[in-house]
Amino acid sequence: MKRLGYLMFFIFSAFLSPQQKVVGDIDSLKLQLGINRDIKQKHSISLALADSFSISNQDLSLFYARESYKYAQELQTDKELWQSAYKIAELFFYKDSLRPALQFAQIAESSIEKTGNQRELALSYNQIGLFLTNLYDYETAGGYLFKSLAIFEKIGNKLEMSNVLNTIGYLYYDLENYEKARSYYTQSLDYAIQVNDDKSLAKAFNNLAVVYETEDKYDQAEEYFKKALKINESIGNEKEQAINLMNLGIIQISENKPAESLGYFHKSKKLAELIDDKQGIAYCCIQLSRVFEKLHNPDSSFYYANAAYKISKKNKLILVERNANYRLQSFFEFVGNPDSANLYGLNYYRIQDSLNSKDQLSKVSNLELKYEFKKQQQILELQQQRGDFIKIIVIGSLIFIIILIILLYARLRISNKNQLLLKQQLEKDMEIKNKELTTGVIYSIEKNKVLSALTTELVEIETNAVKEETKEAIRKIAKKIQESVDTNAWEEFEARFNQVHKEFYETLTRLHPELTPNEKRLCAFLRLDMSSKEISRITGQSLNAIEMARIRLRKKLGIAHTEANLTSLLSQY
């Protein structure tokens, strides 16, 4: 990216991982981490420590981020895995380690996709889009960024929309399409104004200023840098203040105002020292060396170039070291010390050649990283498809089982209903047969009574008759009537009763062998649900005699002193 070493974009603040708040300074957090036994709390504390060291000590920040990742793996919860992987990816990006940055960004994306959390998923898309921009894979990066923007638009999160638009502006700036970059930074600024978020406002003002500076529109650039600086001062953001001040100093140099730039660079350096930002301190020293050279102050130029050189060597800041060697070469040439000038000149070209070689290797490495990224995405997509397929099979199986259960239940209900109907029909048929039996026996007995009465009356008439012919005729009639009397009525009744209630007499005899024939017959009448009055009418016995017979029967059946129903008991036989 053009002049990125000096004109620093506020990209990273969009990616601070949202997590459970853990209150306390660094020493307090370390103490909490040591004594706490709750894995979820240890995960949150580790992330808080990673944030605390993210500016002053990136290696230590990365250590705590990795510790949080271990705890997240123990927890086996996708949200915590996302938080840790997202933070680790961010820190590797700070360290220009794109390979592990992309790897953990993909882990974060894969983890959060499982939860369905749209906000965190959109943040991951934005992060991956930024990383791919630095791989110069602009097409894939744009796809991720616009997916992120679409999600935030859908859920109405204007603050995150501002952040994504800022990243899209960064992409177009890298493509040297400054008009598009300015357009997206302006949109980012509009949303930041709507939500009144100071950090996003400062970021948008700074990045718009960078575009204007690149286009040599120094007045507009200075105006926006100052707006960003004012906001960062009000919220106490020392890191961004230092960046704003350095950028304002660079504007003064671009407008050939070196004396005016001194104040900005000194203030920027002081803030960088306050937050222990070694890279920021080194950059300020390089700028101060340039300014003092323009102001014809070689001693001060050497002092700051040498300070930058020492800091860069100690902290392995290669770009700063290269520039410091160049500044020192210029100084020794100016003071007439060719040996030292040649030494630093050789160092400069050695580092430059190394950077050129690294640049060539970086291009190959970037191609390899693009390939690995797309391959990993394909693997993740296949895993997702496999997971979706398994879900479809499981859901389909569940639906099939539910349908089968419903069909079986319906079939069981129909079967039960049919059995109930069959039972009801059988009971109805039995009732009809019982009525037929009752009606039949009553008819036979009533008929016999009538015929017997007629015979008796005819005998009386015969006795009183005078003529022998008349008596003979009456005798013949009486005989025929007597022949019509059904002497086998009870036998016929019992035979038909046995046809309907096949095992009744057998069960009754087996359980109560002491019962007399008349008592068994009474049991049959009761099995037919006949009342005492009906039994009295059939048998010719008095109602009182029938009641006494029932009492004796209850005693023989063993229910004399109970409330058991005699008819109900016999219906079970």
Account of the 3D structure:
By secondary structure, the protein is an all-alpha fold. The chain is about 80% helix and about 0% strand. The chain is built from 24 helices and no strands. The longest helix has about 130 residues, at about 340-465. The radius of gyration is 54 Å and the shape is rod-shaped.
- DSSP summary, beta strand count: 0
Residue share in β-strands: under 5%
Task: Point out poorly predicted stretches.
Answer: 1-23
Number of continuous helical runs: 24
List the helices and strands and how they pair.
Elements: H1 26-35, H2 39-52, H3 58-75, H4 78-94, H5 98-115, H6 118-134, H7 138-155, H8 158-174, H9 178-195, H10 198-214, H11 218-235, H12 238-254, H13 258-274, H14 278-294, H15 298-315, H16 318-334, H17 338-464, H18 468-484, H19 489-500, H20 504-511, H21 517-527, H22 532-539, H23 543-556, H24 566-571
Helix pairs in contact: 1-2, 2-3, 2-4, 3-4, 4-5, 4-6, 5-6, 5-17, 6-7, 6-8, 7-8, 8-9, 8-10, 9-10, 10-11, 10-12, 11-12, 12-13, 12-14, 13-14, 14-15, 14-16, 15-16, 16-17, 17-18, 17-19, 22-23
Quick tags:
single chain, 573 residues, mainly alpha, 24 helices
